[in-house]
Structures are given as C-alpha cells and as structure tokens.
Fold each of these.
Amino acid sequence: MPLPSDWPWRSLADVARELGRGGVSPVELTRACLDRIERVNPVIQAFVSTDASRALEAAEAAQREIRAGRYRGPLHGVPIAIKDNYDTVGVPTRNGSRVFGDRMPQRDASAWVRLRDAGAILLGKTTMSEAAWGVDFPPVRNPWDVRRNPGLSSGGSGAAVVAGLCYMAMGSDTGGSIRIPAGLSGVVGLKATYGRVPRAGVVPHSWSLDHAGPLTRRVEDAAIVLDAIAGHDTRDPASAAVPVGNYLGDLARGVRGLRIGVPREHFWERIEDGIEPLVRQALSELERAGARIEEVSIPHMTGALGAILVTEMASVTAWHDRYLKQPERRARYTPEVRFLMDAGKFVFATDFLKAQRLRRVLMDEVRSAFADVDVLATPSLPLRAWEVSESHVPISGQTEHVLHACWRFTYPWNLTGLPALSVPCGFAGGLPVGLQLVGRPFDEAMILRVGHAYQEATRWHEMHPPDPTPPA
Amino acid sequence: MSLPPLEPIADLAGHPLSAADLEQVALILDGMMEDIQKLRDLELPDDVEPILAFRVEPWV
C-alpha cells in the first residue's frame, strides 16, 4: 500500500517515531524516497548518484532488526543522503569533479560510519559544485523556483531535503556551504563548532575552515543527527576531545530568560529588500517567547572577508596542487574552477599570516560580544536565491558577485569556528529567508534550543514547494 | 585596482601559466583585491600572533 501523500514532507523526527512504533517500515520509506527521486531528480538534479539495491538491502536489514526488537534509535531505518565529498566505500566519491571521476574510496568518512552505525539508510550522494569551489554549478535547481540556485556547494543537499527526496542530507561548510543552501532552500542547516563533527574522509577544501554537518527540515532533526555524529575522532587531527551534549534532550527548555545578541556591524549592511524585516520579526517572535534582545559589537567583522579569501584560496590550491601539476588531470577541471585554483598561487604568505592574526583578534572580539549574551542572531544571507544564469546581482544599488554576496554573513563563523545554525524564517518574494543563530564554542545545545523554540512558535518549516517542473 | 603583470609571479611560484590563463586569473584577483587590501591595511596590535594550528577550545 502506498504511503500517505504527506510522507515526503514529514520531519526526520516524525518519521523516526513512526519507524520506532512500527507505523511504517524502512523498506516502505526507502522505496517511497527512491520513487520520488526518480520522478523529481531529473528536474532539480539534487542527487548525483543513487544506489537503489544497496539502499533497499540496508532497509531490509533495518526492518529485520526493528521487528526483532533491536531498534537502535531515531536514525534507524531513516533514508538519508550524503554530499559527494564524503568518502563512501563501494560508492564513487567524485567531489563534484571530473578530476575525481574514477575515485572509489577505500574507507568510509567517519561521519558516515556514525550515521550508518545509528541505522541510517544511504540513498545516494548529493550534487555539489566542483571541488566545493566556485559557482560553476552542475545544474542543481532550487525546488522553490527551478530557474534559481539552491545555494553553494551543498546545494544538492538543500534541494534534496526541501524537495522531500530524503529526511536528512549531509553537507560541508567552509564559508557557509551548509547554511547558505539551508537559507536559500528553506531548510535547517547546522555547522557545529570546528572540531565537534569529524571531517575525516570528507575531501578537504580548506583545512582550518572545513566543517561537516546536516541539512534537515526541523531543528529537532538536526539535534538527532548531531547526537549521532558529534564527538572526538582520532582520524581527524582537528577533532576536539570535548564532551558532547544531549542535543535532543535539551531542545524543549525554551528561551525564557535567554539573552540574544544582535551584532551592530556588518550583518545589516548591503542586504536585499525584504530580508531584514523577516529576521527582525523572527527576533520579535523569540522575544515574545521570553528571550531578551541586546545589541553587541564585533568591530573587526567588516574587514574579515579578505581573511577568509586568502585562507581559502591558498588552502584549496595547496590541496589540489598535485592534481593541477598533472596535465591530464588539470585538463579535467572546468576552466572556472581551474582559474580559481591558479589564482590561489598568487596569495602571499604575509597576507595569509595577517589573516590568521586577524582570526585571533576576531575570536577575542566575538568572545567579548558573548560576555552578556547566550547566542548571536543575524540574517543567514544578504540575498535570496539568484537565477542560475546570474554571476552578479544588484544589492542596495551595488552590483556584487554572487559568491562574494552569499557568504558575507556566514564566513565569520568559519573563521572563528563557532557553531551556527540557519533556520527558515519566512519568504520574501516567494523565496525562503533564513535566520542564523550562533553559539559559544561547543554550545550547539543552545543554538538548537533557540532554533527549536522558534520553530515551535512558527510554521515556516512546514511549508514545502510544489513538485518541480522543468523551467520554461 | 590594476594588477601588475602576473607572469613573473607565476614563474616565481613555480606555476607558469599561458597568457590566456593569466588573463582569467587576473580577473579573479582583481575582484578580490579590494578585500585583500582591506586586510593589508588593518592595524593589528604587535602582540597578536597568527593562529597557525587552528583549534577551538571551550571558554573557561
């Protein structure tokens, strides 16, 4: 019997409850997701590969275990997707690039191992921009408007979740690539503290900026995933041996008495019409729920874009250098990405070190900003989803490159490594807008708690796009 | 901002590029130089050391 029509739009948490009580089986769910992918994916291209037989085999095993009373927890039997830069044994990991078209990993990414051990079912890999770099997309489309982009390198993960193709998709975030697609696609995106979620087995982009994390429909779903993937990993040199929280258990504590800081600088400058009112409205909603809103200051934030530019450019080029030197491999990069990597050769060591000095100053300033508040709140992005053919967009009378514009509000939390969450907070001109919540180091529980309280008070996360049809 | 010829720098970096490639690279760098210049222009206190092995520690 087919599943009820609302199944694609249920949250992971809802689905987990049904799986746990036997109201639905992993095989039914997995088949439903695979059928939907077959129907919808040709339009939005959220998945770069699927493996139906492997997924169904895993779903049957989960079904047997659950029926035998060996229920592992809320991810057991849940169909998920993983970005194409996470190593998965037996499934190609191409990092979105023809350069790695023949790459078959020998070892699974640590985050995927933890998800699999929790019982999650891998449907396939989500589409990403080449080597998580540049804006020259494979043709991933935003389900809210298929003429538009779903976000940066984890765009396939955002599109897959909002289109109801899976109940969670993993992404990676170097300057915002979990929170940007979350904001542009109208889903939740969580980048935990640097070192909280293992990056081992995720193809490196910029060592000191890379984070792994989930895109989900609800904050509650992100908490479930973080409960499974957080924690020290000896395979990841940046992994932190800091005790993990009880992310799901802490969610319902509400925001009464919490102090939310709103940075005075940077996050309200050059922003598209319609975004700021929605974010201010979200803050008012949190105030009504009992939080107190206070202004804070992070003076050096404005000049920090140069710091991430030189850090990221130099790091990407350093990692790809061995491939750039091989003529046959070099030729397989798309020209736009190759030029970006070549440009990384022109970053001077003095600028790189200045950037790392600025990171220390920013860390100190952010810590001061947190002296009297529990979380910071900002818009996730200064713009809404742009058309796939656009490389530049006008914002507040200035023309700006979309890559430059879209990460302006997200990259500070990569430079500082603080946990950050994007939560849908409304629609401007029919396109999703995100609220970004930032926490103290390793205090993911706090941003999840605030995000959950916001979702309990609003209904934006229940909205979903119609089934996408090809652009005219 | 106009960039100096990039060819000698590319050679110095051990990464020689064709004139056509250098032209594309110059366009990219040109779009970033304003932000990089802002970074260069920042006055930071003498005692600020770069973070060379980036780690996040709990605040105590």
Amino acid sequence: MTTASDALQSPLPPDPAGTPAAASVLAKPATGTFWQRFDTLLDGLSDRLNPILVKESRQAMKSRQFTITFTLLLIVGWVYTVLFVLVNLPGVFYSPLGRFMLFGYYLILAVPLLIVVPYGAFRSLASELEDGTFELLSITALNSRQIILGKLGSSVLQMLVYYSALAPCIAFTYLLRGVDVMTIFFILLYSFYATLLLSVVSLALATVTRSRQWQVLLSVLLVVALVLFAFFWCMMMSSILAAGSMMPYDEPEWWIANVATFTFEVGFVLLFILIAAGQISFASENRSTSIRIMLLVLQALIFGWTAYTFLLAGEEEVLMIGSLWLGLFWAIAGAFLIGETAQLSPRARRELPQSLVGRMAFTWFNPGSGTGYVFTVLNVLGGLGILAVVGYAHASATAGGPQIIQAEFWYEFLAYCYGVVTFQMGLPVFAKWTAWWLALASYLTIYLGLARLFGVLLRWGKVGGGMLSVFVFYLLLVVMGVLLPFSLQGLMQWLFNYGFSTFEYSPLQISNWWWTLIEIGMDRSVTSDGTIWVLIFVALAVFVLNFILAAKEVEQTRLAAPNRVLQDELELHPPPAKVVKRGPWDEPPPTGPHAEQNKNPPTSPFRPSPPAG
Amino acid sequence: MIELRRLHRFFGRTKAVNDVSFEVPRGTVFGYIGPNGAGKTTSMRILASLELPTYGDAYVDGFSVINDPDRVRRRLGFMPDYFGTYADVNVEEYLDFFARSYGLVGRERHQRLQYVMSFTGLDVLKEKPIRALSKGMKQRLCLGRAMVHDPAVLILDEPANGLDPRARIELREMIRELAARGTTVLVSSHILTELAEMCDRVAILERGQLLAMGTVAEIQKEQQPRREVNVGVVGPLTPLLEWLSSRTDIADVKVAGQQQVRFAHQGEQESEVQLLRELVQAGFPISEFSSHTRSLEDVFLAVTKGLVQ
C-alpha cells in the first residue's frame, strides 16, 4: 500500500506548466469508450459553469439539509396525495378538485421554496464569511459578482430540484380538472420570482456583518421574516387560485402587468446582486457606480410603467401612487448613498470620466456622499418632473387642446415665475398635483440633505460618519420630523385646554411630511398658505449647502494606469495582428493555432529544400 | 518579486505593522520571524490583498496590492494559519474547486490537479472527505490549494504549526523544492531552527517594527560581531592570559574553569584558525579550542525584547 509520505519520497513529478509533454497532451483529442468521451464532454461543459455553482451543487447534493428536505417533500407530497384522494372519494372521479389539490401541493412546496432555499443561500454565504473560506475565495480569480451569482445559481438549482420533485403531483392536479395549465404555470412562476428575490435579498443580508453574534441575530430575524412572508404569500396565492378560471388571460392589460412584474423582478434581483457583490468586494474597488446605474434603470422602470398605466387608465391616482413609489424608492436608496465615503482609490480613479461633458454627466455616478446626494435629488426631480409633465400633457390632451402640454401648465408656470420675480402677485396658489410633487421632492431633498450634513460633520470631527450612523440619523430625523410637531401640537392643545376636537393641520406641522402630504392629497389649504414655498426655499438652501460641500468629490480626476499594469494588460490581451492585404488577389494571412508553424514549416526529409540563394 | 514600502497598519491605537519595508527577490525563501502580535500575519494578509494598509503599499511582481489586487491574486498563493475547508467535500473536489476558481479549465486543470496532489502526497487520499484528514494532511491540502494555480509567489503563514517532526521535514523539503523551481516563498514560523534551515533570508519583527533582516549568517554577525572562544590548556593559565590580553583582536578574557579561558574574538573562522596556529606556535599546550556561534534562537532572543501590544 502506498502512503502519502511514500509518495512524497518518490521523485516529484515535473511541473506540467510549460513542458512540451503537457502541450502534446493538451492537443490530444479525447479518446476512449462512449461513456468516457461523454464524461469528458460533460467535464468540458462544467468548465463553462460558475465554479461556485459546481462546488455548491456537489456540497448540496451531499448535505444532510438537502437530503432531509427533499425526502420530506417527497413523503409529505405522497401522503397528501393519498389522503386527498381517500377523503374525496368518490367525488374525485367526477368533481373538478384540481384547484384544491394544487393549493395543498403549493403549501407543501412553499416551505422549501420560500423558507429553506433563501435561508440556505443566507447560510451558505454567511458561513463562508464566518469560517474564513470567503477570504480564500476572494483571493482567487473569481470576482465578487461571480461569487454571488454562483450562490444564487445554486439556489435556483435547488429550487428546480424541488419543483421537479412535485412535478408529477402538480401534473396530476391538472388531470383532476378545476385548474388550467396557465394558472398552474403562473402560480409556479410567481413562486419562482419570490424565491429568487428572497434568495438574493438573503445573500445581500449575509454580507451585512461578519461577526458571528450579529449573524446569529440576523439568521433569527431572517427566519421569522421568511415564515411571515411565506404565510402572506400563500394567502395571496390562495386568492389567485380561488379566482381560478376568472384570471383575465385574454386581456392585454393582464399580460402587460406580467411584463411589468418581470421587469421589476429582473431589476431588483440585479440591484441586490450588485449590492451583495459590492459589500464583499475589495475596499479599493468602485462599489457604487454600478449600483447607481441600476438605481437609474429601476427609476426609469417605475416612472415608465406608472406613466404607461396612467395613460392607459387615465386616473390621476395612478400618478400619485407612482410618485409615492418613486419617493419611497429614493428615500431608501438615498439613505445609503448619502452615507458613502468619498475616498476614491487610484484604481477607481483610473476609470473616471475625462471630458468636460463626461464629467458633468457622470461625476454623480462616482462613489461619495456628496455625489450620492446630488444624484438622488436630481433623480427625484427628474422622475417626479417627468410624471408631472405626463400628467399635464394628458390633462391638456383630454381637455381637447391641440398641443401636448397646454395652456394651463404654461400659464401656471409663468405665473409662478412672474410672482417670484416681481413679488407683485403674492404667493400663487398651486394646483393639487404640482403641490404634491413639489412637497415630496422638497421633503426628500431636506431630510436626505440634513442627514448628509450630519455625516459630513461626523467625518470632519473624525467620530464616525459611516453609512450606518448616517442611516440611523436619517431614520431618526424622518421619524422625529413626524412625531415631534405632532406631539408638540398635542401638548399645546392640552396645555391651553383647546381640546382635541379641533386637532387640525397647522404651520407647526411643516416638518411632518406625512400629514402635509395627506393634506395636499386632500386638496386642503396647504396648497395655498405658503407651506409649499417654505419647503421649496428650505430644500433649495439645503441642496446648495450640500452641493458646495460636495465640491471636493467633483474635483476628482482620472489617473493614468501604471506602466506595469499597461504592460500586463498587453500580455493578457494582445492587440490583434494587423492584416495587411495589398490587393484582392492576396491570400489572407494564416490564423489559428498552427499559423506560426505553417509560416515557417520545419525542414523535413520529405520536403524539397528551398533552392539556395 | 515582493516589495513592502513603508507599510503601516493600525487597528485603533495598536500599530500592528509600523513602517516595514523590504524586498524579496524571485526564487527566494524568506522567513518572517516574530513573537505573537508582531505583525507577521497582518503584513502577510496585506500582501495577500485581504486587508488594506493604513499607509504605505506592498507590491507583488510590480503590482500594488491596493490598486491592482486582481493582478496580485493571479500571481499569489496564500496559505493562512487556518484551514478554511468545506464540509461534505473530498480532497479532489476541494482542489478542483480552487483550480476552477483560478480559471484553470479542461486538461490543464486535470494535469495541474494531478501534479499538485502528487507533489503534496495527497493523490492516495483524493477520495477521502476533508473532515477525515489528519492535521498534517490538511496542511498539505492547504499548501496544495495555495499552489494549485502555479503562483509565482507563495505566502505561508505558520505552515508547520502543529505538525509532527516528520511532516515538518517533508513540508520543508516541499518549500525548498518550490523555491528551486523559481517560486518566491514568504514563510512565517515560530520554529526558528526550521526557518534557519529553510530560508535564504529572514526578517525579525516585534511590535510591528522590523528589527533585523538579512541572511541568518548576516544577522548572526550583526548581533554578535565577536565570536566567543574557549581555550583549554594543560598547565598554568597565567602565561596564556597575558598572551591573550596583549592582542588587539581579543577582548573580555576570563577564566572559565580550572584549565579553561574564555574570550571574545573579533574575526571570521579563518582568523580563528590563525589564532590557534599562533597559540600552538607560541608553545601553549592546547587541549581544547572551540568557538561558539549564536543560533537563530539566540539571535531572536537578543534582538527581540518580548514586548507585546
């Protein structure tokens, strides 16, 4: 028997890299039996897969968790089938019971899909971070995106295995009648969406902390959240199943809604992949730009679908809901962007835009709290502005005017300008929706701006100012902005014995974004009493102050890559050889692996020697 | 091949690495010595592009670990002081995974795997689950993982930790073999005798600062410019003491026993031979002549102060 130490004592094998023998082996085609060749083919195909996916699949198939879940799924599915048939005998032969049976299978499938798979994704990455294997992984040629995609791919694979385990049972429900193929397909598709999104969010959550204690806490919170989500999701699915054949498959709006869902699913999955990848990438990488591009795409999706739905339905509430979504989206995204540090590594600076126009347009995509703030505010204004224009355009068009944006809008706009410049008209009265959008944009500008100023102050005093502290401060600010004036007014009412029957909106509530927006939505006096103007001026002041403080981030310019990097780049990606073809009768120069060999053929006894001279 | 330029790494007020600079040429085995908390692991982690320095930079093959970690990683294999293995994976699958992760495909991957398993002696254990491996075998596996992509630089943090004597000797042979094939190896260890045998050059660190650097002989000479010599004579000591005291290359002459004298002699081995010859020519009945050189352990103890932070 050979032992490991015996093997070591024997002469060491030659290094395969660079030896002629290795080259000849590499060039040799696969030989052997059909199965050996098939195995070689599969092995070659696996080279094209993400290594994490290959490793995770190997691990998952051997893991106890997968074996138990898969076995339980099969057993429970089988027991449920038998029990359902037995309980419903003899009606099962003639009643359309497929829908009820499908719901049972769906509940069985929901546990692995909505709880086990996302939690498995979370644990998979969290355990890598805890056990130190992530460090080993991070110094390989895999980049952080490949790592996250590999983990996600493994979740998808597990999902498909679970689906396939219950596939015969689900097919059986169709045979029982009562449910159509489209409903089955869409129910499974929505579950796929949900699991995919939950898995990628879980992966992003796993990157939040590397400390074991926090990971434990996060695990518990995640399990609770997943169970709750699964519960509500199943309730929602039961309502879809209850609708059954009434699903409007023949209506184009239904399909459009599905396309919209698909685009949002893809958008948010990509966003969370980028966030998770950014979290685990090396500190000198530019983690922010790709996320900002994705946020821009998502914003385009939100206002694009809102505008489309509005034009389709013609109801102004659609615009209001769309703008609320947009506001909420930027309120959350902006909270993270304003906490970024503005340090740009020389590596990141190598890829900065260089031209004046490029710098003007793309500087806001660079990492940094200042650029993040300006990026958020510009997007809020841009998004809400587009929705406003769509609203006015539609209102004008339906009013029968010939132009897209009609008199009302321009009149209002010019009146404001005139009033502001001359101070002769006093404060103009805003239309309801103009006030709504302006207030929403102002609140976002003010709260995000104040939180960013707090972060700048902390960093200036060298007492933190990281993403977490800015986020917490922002959250407190937003909550206190509502609670403080509310409590203050309540206290005053109580102190001065006004009673609470007249607890109405007052100028004291100007920081209370919640109440102010409701008041505007209800078209009350807020639109005419100057509240909006105060908000606009404060927002402008906060924005200008932040803009000035962001100057340093804007000053960053591109750095040239060091010579060693350029040299290495040239070695890795040599420029293609210039093909010089002097005439149409010239043959193209030889290409391919044997080009050099063909150009200088070796002398051979069978080849006539070239004539001397 | 490896270069540290004024490297600093602070954790709060703790200066884990404090202004360390050195260069390691290609194909060299460079030993990193220091007590616990000296900053060895931190500087190795910076070199492996796992941590950012507070100030300064480190370079591998001319690439900055801060700005071009991806290029550094292609050229570098790192074996940390922990195993970092996966559950439910056998030896071959583990190495295969890392080979794939380093971008090796097809036959090249298979050949490299075969080579690495053969080199580390793991080919006979390739089907064995990792959890069933002994500590020594796990160390071999980790070395195999670090060298699976044929890196130009290997960084080994305490690779001999917890190994039995035989496994240590085998590991030492492997490292020498890698260096002979042109790999630059940076290795840290507490087992100083082993480092002395294995390394071409060593650096001694304490509290994040570089205290000494060079070949073992150079450091020994630097720390001990005079060699301690013992001379035994048959007969009275007084003439010998007088003779020795009259010489300028000899100092600290002491009587070490009934028939022995100890003194510090400045010079190399050749001058010791000359001294012995002169003693004999002067007619002293020499019964013993020995000189003492400090071992790396002695040097380490002399250089470091046992300070921790």
